[in-house]
Structure formats: structure tokens, C-alpha cells
Protein 1
Amino acid sequence: MIHDPLEGDEGKITLVRARGSLVWDDQGREYLDCTSQAWSNNLGANDPRVVKAAIAQMQEITHARPNFNTLPLLELTAKLRQIAPGDLNRIGYCLHGSLAVEMAIKLAFKNKPGRHNLIVLQDAYHGRSITTMAASWPHPDNPFLPIQPRFVRVPHPDPYRPRLGMDVEAESKLCLYLLEETIAKGVDGGVAAIMLEPIMGNGGHIELPLSFLKGVRDICDRHDIVLIWDEIQSCFGRTGKMFAADLYGIVPDIMTFGKGVGGGFPLAGIFASDRLQGFESGEDALTFGQFPVAMAAAVATVDAIISDGLCDKAREHGAYATQRLAEMSERRKLIGHVRGPGLFVSVELVKDRQTKEPARKAASEVYRRGAAKGVLFGESRYAGLGNLIKVKPPLDCTHEQMSHALDILDEVLGSIEADGIA
Ligand code: PMP
């Protein structure tokens, strides 16, 4: 069998219950979940309003093929239009972020007939389907290469590890210059779209400078290229605004969403500009793509994110967390860098602050010792880094929970330093 849960996977926790920021395992142990289950529970787990809406929908209709509308589909679409940035009023749905990215890519190519290239950033992560893996960083020993499309990867600025010790703004300018040069001289057959995560998530949590984000928008405008922002990880309040597009004041042409929208139910999709031509029937239809139960859950989730003021809470918790982590870094030499924005928080552990060599063993110990003390910290094993500690609980966690998670991180880092692990 593939991914057989009964084989291997030693040490994996079996979860049996979740509520808010807490989860419980089959041994009755309670954990504070700073992973929000792949940063998806922006609204805390099993929110009673979401559960009630999903149950009510289940009693009416659980499945309708995409040829039909359902009431939650209409209600959710109207709601999302109200909060959509700029003119991104056209909405498409599916159940997984990877498929939302594929939908975005398809729509971009449909709108630029005759163009042959998609440009992505070098440390990007856009999913694990055949196409989205190819749009992510080079996968080590990739067995799927023979059947994957090829995309063009360009460098992006990295404020913590700028090239040749450059200043952040100079590096941003250099990367914009190289991007434009790639469009002019680096591809055959024109560029249909440029795709990026406004805050790069799995590829090392990199906050792209505003100048770079603005510059890419400008290049897309000048070259008539579709700009896709993959907001699957940054959407629905995580950054302290509903979308990163609102945070940075930039409107892409297509924006993906996922994770936090469904309140724990699978849902993802795209927002697209009114200016783009939509799909014809048959170009993008998935049997379960408009799952009414997830839609009903999403209506309740989006309502709760707004009425509970979770964007404000993300900013408050995030400001508190980053300030405490900065203080902690004065005592804990393993902390190399503290990152945001909002509750998109992580720290990078390094062996040495000068060389910035990733402290991977120390990070593994943080996950292990944290879990033993009842706090699950988020991991990042991708892109060869593996040294990030993500502190991303649900946006509606309490101040005490946030503070407790940081106390435990401090304690665990202290014990790891005392044991000489890096
Ligand atoms: N894009 C981004 C930016 C993501 O963070 C993820 C998930 N980590 C995906 C796409 C893929 O989403 P999914 O796992 O739901 O397919």
C-alpha cells in the first residue's frame, strides 16, 4: 500500500479530538497546536459555528456536480466577492491548494494564447501535484521529471541571506533586473504568467521586500503578463489582513486561496480579475470541486473571521510573539532571525549568527522536546533548510496560550543549548 498509516511512521501522534488551539491524542495527552494543522485552522479547530453549519448542510445535500449551483455555493461566492481585493470578483473552487494553483495556471495560459512560459521563484512552493511540484523548488531525486512540465525559475531577494552581502533594496533591484532580462532573453515563446507567494512559506519563510512585489507588478503590467499570487498560506487573516494583497496594497490578476477558508474542511480556489476571460465548460470541472458541506463551513468560517476580528488578533498576537522572540534571541544564541508578518511567525535556528549555517538538529529537538511538553511547533523540512520553528497557532488563540507556547520554546531552546546540540 502507499502511505500505509499502519506501517512505519514511528512516533507519529494519533489525534482524536481538537478544539480551538488544542488537540488531544489517543493517549489522552493535550497539546497546544502551533501548527494549526498545516496553518489551516486560522479559526480555531472545530469551531461550533462551523460544525453546526456543516451538519445543517449535510442534512440537506452533500454532493452536487459542478453543472449545478447549491445555496452555500451562491452564498459563499457573494461573500468572497465582498472581501475580494480590487477587481478579483471571479471565483473558482476546488478542494486542494495544489489544484487551485493548477486552475490559476490554466486560466493564465488560456488568457495568453501563444505564450509558452510560466516564471516562478527559486524557493517557491506551490503544491505536490505533477504540475505544482514542477513550479516549486527542484525536488531532490525527482522521479516525476519525465512527465512534468518545465517552468522557468528566477532568483528572488532574501532579506536574511542576501546575495554577496548586498543591501536588501539593492538585491531587490538586482532580482527585478534579472527577471526582466529573463523575459527578454531567457525564454523561447513568450511569458504567459509570473507566479509567486507574496510571503514564501514552505521554501524557508521568506518575506519578500515590498519593492520587489511592487516591481514584479510593474513588470507584468509593462509586458502584459498575468500576475498570479499564491495566497494559499497567507489568506484569510494569517498576515493580519484578510489577504496579503490587502497588506501590501497590490492587486494581482489571479490569486489562489485555500487552507484557512474552510474552517477545517477541504476547500481552495482562485480569485480572478474581471478583465480575464473565464473557462469554457469542460476546461475546469472537478466532480467534488464544489463540495457543499465545505462551502457551508466556509461561509460560517469567513463570517467568524470577520465578526471575531481575527485579522486584528493576528496582528496583536504576532506583534507580541515577534517582540518576545526578539528578546529571547538576546539570550538564546540559536535564534538567527525572527520573521512575520502578523501571525505568520517563525524563527530560523542557526549554528552561528555570522555564517547563518542552519541548525537542523536543534530544530528537530525543538519539535520533539516541545511535543513532550505539550506544545506542537511547526516544522519546515523543505528546500534543504529544516531549521525553521514556526509559531502559527490559530488566530483566535488566547494571550495565555501564546505566552505559554513562547515560554516552552524558551525553555526548550535553553535545554538544547545546554546539551550542546546545534
Ligand atoms: N501553495 C502554497 C503557498 C502552499 O503553502 C501550499 C500548501 N502548503 C500549497 C500551495 C498546496 O496546497 P495543498 O497542500 O492544499 O494542495
Protein 2
Amino acid sequence: MRNILITGGAGFIGSHVVRLFVNKYPDYNIINLDALTYAGNLENLKDIEGKSNYTFIKADICDYKTINSIFSKYKIDGVIHLAAESHVDRSIKDPFSFAKTNVMGTLCLLQAAQNYWEGDFNNKLFYHISTDEVYGSLEEEGFFTETTSYDPHSPYSASKASSDHFVRAFHDTYSLPIVISNCSNNYGANQFPEKLIPLFINNICNNKPLPVYGKGENVRDWLYVEDHAKAIEIIFHKGKLGDTYNIGGFNEWKNIDLIKILIKTVDKLLGRKEGASEKLITYVKDRAGHDYRYAIDSSKLKNELGWEPSLQFEEGIEQTVQWYLENEEWVKNVTSGEYQKYYKEMYE
Ligand code: NAD
Ligand code: DAU
């Protein structure tokens, strides 16, 4: 029996991780702790909410007293920490909330684990989920490896880099058993439509302008979210204590080429004429401090733990577009209210 605390489990990636663990490991108690910010949505977990090995707790990772009491109440012996403020554009407008949640929240969890485990680290693990953005930006050539120096540029990536440093510091200073993974851009069902892929799918469906930052030439390395969840499962069980694993699909796309694939797929599935929505492409002011290229070398994860992405990109994109088209109600719910205000401030 294991009692695993998953933070941020109501968000995009977290919900896929929670589902995988709850369904695959009936002898694990999965405790999903999430503050349900604008990005958290319990609708993402409707299918598993009644399972006997699943508990949801609404709490803030920065609430140190509550976090300590949760460790003792649920006898937590494993942590998979995903809760974070995750959108770069929001971090440019409000860096403080990123420092608070991503840095202080991670520190609260680390200290609570340290308090509860009291130096008995047998079968304990603190697994921190991070991003490739901590490594900075690449030129045309090369990849981020686990030994690439940190060089974050946005308040978001600076806060994630800082949290990674705290996690390693707890390992080096107190021997806390930790592992970290740094993943590339995820896509798939349940992603909040502030990020490129779901935002653009929604706008194409509604014939709204597609705001391409700069010249659309920035490059991202895309991974299907369920492949990320499977990598997390493997690293949680087999990762070497104190180590870092990069996760990515060797799947680089220039934004503008990816956007054209999205247009083609949505138009096809909606029965529109091929390329009909290309007229929606609108070049807008570039993102401040926009990283040019991310590309992950995930060969350590493949060679040491045997993980490989399972899905071809075109297939993953088609499944993702299909999901958004079939889940209009989900999209409607998350794009009402506060989202409208955000959209106006960002794009109008
Ligand atoms: P998300 O924004 O969709 O979800 C974040 C979740 O954390 C939400 O459910 C939110 O309610 C919760 N949360 C936020 N602040 C909280 C707080 N103070 N206390 C408790 N819960 C809180 O994010 P995501 O895209 O699913 O990313 C999850 C993690 O993976 C993050 O740590 C992110 O940095 C990392 N990551 C994301 C990507 C990506 O492409 N999305 C890639 C690599 C790494
Ligand atoms: O690399 C991993 C990271 O990927 C994660 O750590 C972050 O949590 C996640 O948000 C993502 O960051 P990006 O900034 O790369 O993702 P985003 O979807 O915001 O943007 C992808 C690219 O598309 C980027 O080059 C900016 C561009 N873009 C984005 C938006 C929202 C546009 O051109 N227009 C837009 O409206």
C-alpha cells in the first residue's frame, strides 16, 4: 500500500497523471490536492471521482499548516508535485503569483515532507515535475540535456528554475529522496485554452483571429500529454534518487507550421473547404523575452528506463482536435466569466 499525494491533479497534466495512477494502481491511495485556481477543473476527473482509492482535497500548497496536517492525516509516503502557475503570458503580467505558488508552494511541500518523514526515507519519494524552459532558449542546432546549464528568461521559467534548485538543495542538504523531470510542451485533452493549441482550436472553430506572436517562427517540441503521464509513472517507480530526467518527443515544430496543421485538421473535421480558416492567421506583437527554440534530448530516459513516446504527432493532433469538438460544454464552461476578461486584456 502506498499513499501518494499528487498536487495540481485537477489541472491539465495532473488530471492525466491522477487518472493513470488511480486506474492502474488500485492498491495505492491517491490524494489529489489542488487549489482549483482558474486552471483547475474537477470536470477533468469526473470518470474516476467515485473510486475508492481516490480522495480530492481543495487546498493551497502555500498553506504550510494545512500541508503539514495532510502529510500526517494521510500518511503520505510519495509526492508527485505538479501544482503550479503554468502560463508564460500570465507570468509576464503578474510575476508575484508565480514566485508565490511555484517557489514558496514547492518549499512548503518540501519542508512538510521533511517534517513528516523525519529522516526515515525508506520507500519515500518527492517527485518534482518541471519544464524544459528552465534551460533557456536554443539557436537552430542542439538539444537540452540533463546537464545543460539553467538560463531561464520568463518569470514563469525563473520560478520553475528556482523551485528545481530548492528540490535539489533539500536532497543535497537533508538527503531528502527526490527526483526531477523536465518536460517539453504538452498537448492533448483538457488543456486550458490560454495555451497555443487549445486556444487556436477554439478560435478556428469560432472564426476568430489567430494571434501569432512575432513571425510565428519560434520552435517548440510537442509531446502528447498521456505520453508525459506514462513517463512520470516510470520515473516515479524506477527513477534514480537525486537524478533528473528530460522528457520530450523529438518532435519540433515552428509555430506557424503547427498552426497550419491545426487549421487543416479543424477545417477537415468541421467539413469546411481545405485551408478555409488560413485567413484567420493574424501576426501580432511578439511575446516579451520570447524564447526562440526548445528541443529536448530524452535519450537518458529511453536508455535507462525504457520510455518512448507512443503516438505520432499527426494522430495526436487529430485526437486532440476531435476531443475539443466533442467537448463543447467543457470548453464553454472554462471560457465563460473570468476567461473573457483575460482574453480582452491579452488580445484586444
Ligand atoms: P495547469 O495550469 O493546467 O494546472 C495547474 C494546476 O495546479 C491547476 O489544477 C491549479 O488549480 C493548481 N494550482 C495552481 N496553484 C495552486 C496552489 N497554490 N495550490 C494548489 N494547487 C494549485 O498546468 P499544467 O500545464 O498541467 O502543468 C502542470 C505542471 O507541469 C506544472 O508544474 C508545469 O510547470 C509543468 N509542465 C507543464 C508543461 C506543459 O506543456 N503544460 C510542460 C512541462 C512541464
Ligand atoms: O516547454 C514547456 C512549457 O510549454 C511549459 O512549461 C509551460 O507550462 C507551457 O505553457 C508551455 O509554454 P510555452 O510558452 O511554450 O506555451 P504556449 O502554448 O503559451 O506557447 C507556445 C508557442 O506559441 C510560443 O512560442 C508562443 C506562441 N503563441 C502562444 C500563444 C498563447 C502564439 O504565437 N500566440 C498565442 O496566442
